[in-house]
Q: What sequence folds into this?
């Protein structure tokens, strides 16, 4: 199974965070929805899933629209603490998420975040491609994507594509040799 990690980075290289003063860019969110639809699934951490599901962050139209951007998509939530969340599959490890989606017949798994989930997949060498949307903002005290939290290591990547998404967002797509 091919695995694709999707993330938004800041112009100064941090893992982008969002807040009411700095919400995610519409173009990046639309791209994530398109990538999830193409894959038929996405993997996400519990905290990120709860943020995505927060009624204060989702428009009223999306709350009542059963044909929303993730209708018919297999959503896998990684959680060490929670056993069940209605409407999604909950697993305890990246390997179990990939195994579940593979058993469901998916050819690609989209890894949607957050930073801990991304780093877990990267550290375990479970990522084939990355899609980085570079947002036009600098952030201080940011998070990082790491292949090893404790030791210096590097892994070469190969550029597959580079394109503008609009609103000064640039998308970079890289292959990672496993």
A:
């Amino acid at each position: 199974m091919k695995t694709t990690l999707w993330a938004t980075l800041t112009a100064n290289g941090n893992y982008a965070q969002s807040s009411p003063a700095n919400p995610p860019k519409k173009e990046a969110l639309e791209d994530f929805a398109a990538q999830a639809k193409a894959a038929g699934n996405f993997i996400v951490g519990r905290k990120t899933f709860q943020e995505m599901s927060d009624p204060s962050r989702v428009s009223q139209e999306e709350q009542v629209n059963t044909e929303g951007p993730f209708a018919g998509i297999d959503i896998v939530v990684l959680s060490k603490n929670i056993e069940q969340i209605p409407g999604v599959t909950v697993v305890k490890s990246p390997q179990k998420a990939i195994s579940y989606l593979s058993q469901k017949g998916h050819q690609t798994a989209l890894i949607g975040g957050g930073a801990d989930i991304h780093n877990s997949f990267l550290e375990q060498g479970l990522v084939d491609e990355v899609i980085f949307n570079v947002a036009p903002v600098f952030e201080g005290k940011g998070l990082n994507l790491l292949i090893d939290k404790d030791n210096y290591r590097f892994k070469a990547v190969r550029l597959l594509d580079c394109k503008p998404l609009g609103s000064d967002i640039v998308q970079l797509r890289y292959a990672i040799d496993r």
In short: Residues 8 and 133 are 5 Å apart (CA to CA). The longest helix spans residues 26-39. The two ends are 12 Å apart (CA to CA).
